Request: fold
Amino acid sequence: MLSDFSPLPPDPILGLSAAYREDRNPNKVDLGVGVYKDDSGVSPIMAAVKQAEAAILLEEQSKAYLPPVGTEGFLVGMQQMLFGENHAVVLDGRCKTQQTTGGCGALRVAAQLLMRGSDSATVWVSTPTWANHVPLLGDAGITIREYPYYDYTTHTIDFDGMLSGLEQAAAGDFVLLHGCCHNPCGADLSLSQWEILSGYLGQRGLTPFVDLAYQGLGDGLDEDVAGLRLLADTLPEMIVASSCSKNFGLYRERTGTLSVIADTAEHADNALKQMLNVARGIYSMPPSHGAAIVETILQDSELTEVWASELNIMRQRINGLRLDFAEQAAARGIGRDFSHIAREKGMFSFLGISAEEVECLKSEYSVYMVNSSRINVAGMNSSNMEYLVDALAAVLA
Ligand SMILES: Cc1ncc(COP(=O)(O)O)c(C=O)c1O
Reply:
């Protein structure tokens, strides 16, 4: 039977990384892979993480399994990051949180939870959305529908289109929203749009399902969850998948949470029991190390300060690169408008060039990005910016 499998086409992003590694051009630029990089092109371990790890190594007494839900200190810290201190949904027991294997693990457990609720569970995703949403949700059996989101011509959110697209959603459907730093387009809802959306979802009986993978990398730790908190303030139900991969730099430690908000504490408890049972059928217990790091940082005010200031530097660097790139491209006289790059948030944006231009940048200038022209802004740095702008000017001439 194992001989019956046909080969799969190579994963486009992994293929891009392999091609970049093999490229001998000393000026090569990697804007493809979605990890944060510093000015020297390295994806660093944060100092607060190193300090927390040192403490854990000294203090850890056992490698016995964690409880299925995760450790309390981590869960409390994550709930505070998401909803702030003393949010009613937490105090009233309407919000329940489970430690997961990264944001991906949270999305998959959520998908299987929804399928337990209804075998026709439907999740509406933005056009475009993060490519991995499709297998993470779809392979669990979720019906995936799309609502308009990003206008590629104006590089803005088509908010009217979004609401009219969602007119086709049925009560009980879920609407997947990027909490901040939309991947791949970098265009985030304004607070007034979140407000309108919250009223709309409530009125239509639609449930928000927020994917929060970049908290702290857009406008700030609290600013980036203003929309999420508004939904939590006003709606009876919500699902939140959150990730510590980017904001703690814990990618390989697979650290995240899945939270449910229900109309009553009892309903939230029932949902949590189902979530734990779903995880039991996939990986059983969550891993410890990443969550222990986050817990150690969040429970120590000095370490929290170190971490928050490192995160600030990362965010400011990304926002600075966005501005710098837009200014340099304008100054270089490239006949295209890249001002949206400076307006958008987080690690990703579309350059807005054609697949042929993307290919030409790669083959002629060793500048790597995915075909859609999505770029990882953090792949720019002080050494490659001028080369990148020159390459772009040459290709677009
Ligand atoms: C939009 C979005 N959601 C979720 C994730 C999940 O991240 P992880 O599973 O690494 O925590 C990512 C990672 O790139 C992402 O971009």
In short: The domain at 65-299 is CATH 3.40.640.10 (Aspartate Aminotransferase; domain 2). The pocket of pyridoxal-5'-phosphate is lined by residues 34, 102-104, 130, 178, 183, 211, 213, 243, 245, 251, 256 (CB under 6 Å). The mean pLDDT is 97.
